[in-house]
Design brief:
The chain has nine helices and four strands; from the N terminus they run βαβαββααααααα. By secondary structure, it is of the alpha+beta class. Strands 2-1-3-4 form a four-stranded mixed beta sheet, with helices on one face. α1 (10-22) packs across α6 (157-166).
């Protein structure tokens, strides 16, 4: 059983998608960010950075993993799924995972902040982060021109990591009408049943026992 601490953010959704894809049983534990539950001492003991998501794997002696990219790698290695075994395929997957972690996530996150939340509209900051986010999307678009998925022809943790961010491009005020390959990829990934379920998991207030049993999961909210 895995304890999954999360909230309604792209980083939380990527781990939810991964758990749903793997059909691993897990306890869903909502961390209410507005109440600063992520800063409570009990939570900081498993995630010293005070962010979400975090998992605790009780099948592995209560081993805790924080940072969403690290969680995806851990779960992929635990199950042997969504991370190629060959050296080149594994490296490509991790490269594109890091592209999201170091590029799209931070830049789009800042676009969200200045476009949606900042008390003062700073046009320079809005334009700067929207422009950089769009540039990174263009890199994805070029990659996807000749590849079904980010790491090649197979769906991997690189796609799982990137989809929750790019799927909410409108929230950052970034248009993708001219990025044909990104739009094709979004549609392709969106059609996966586990992606549909995972995108709803962090924001769910209550999940029925019937739904949990369909997924083979035990969910505690």
């Amino acid at each position: 059983m895995i304890d999954f601490y999360t909230s309604n953010t792209p980083n939380g959704k990527k781990v939810a998608i991964m758990l749903e894809e793997l059909r691993l049983p897990y306890n869903l534990i909502h961390v209410h960010l507005s109440k600063l539950e992520q800063k409570e001492e009990s939570y900081l003991r498993i995630n010293p950075n005070g962010r979400i998501p975090t998992i605790v794997d009780h099948d592995n002696g209560g081993f805790g993993v924080f940072e969403s990219g690290a969680i995806l790698i851990y779960l992929a290695e635990k199950t042997g799924m969504f991370l190629p075994e060959d050296v080149n395929g594994r490296s490509l997957t991790i490269q594109w995972l890091m592209f999201q972690m170091a590029g799209i996530g931070p830049m789009q996150g800042q676009a969200h902040v200045f476009y949606r939340y900042a008390p003062e509209k700073i046009e320079y900051a809005i334009a700067r982060y929207q422009r950089e986010t769009k540039r990174l999307y263009a890199v994805l678009d070029k990659r996807l021109k000749d590849n079904e998925y980010l790491a090649g022809e197979e769906y991997t943790i690189a796609d799982i990591s990137t989809y929750p961010w790019v799927s909410i491009h409108n929230w950052a005020g970034v248009d993708i009408d001219d990025l044909e390959n990104v739009r094709r990829w979004l549609k392709l990934v969106r059609q996966r049943p586990a992606v549909k379920r995972g995108m709803d998991i962090p924001k769910s207030k209550r999940i029925s026992q019937e739904d949990a049993e369909k997924r083979g999961s035990k969910l505690l909210v």
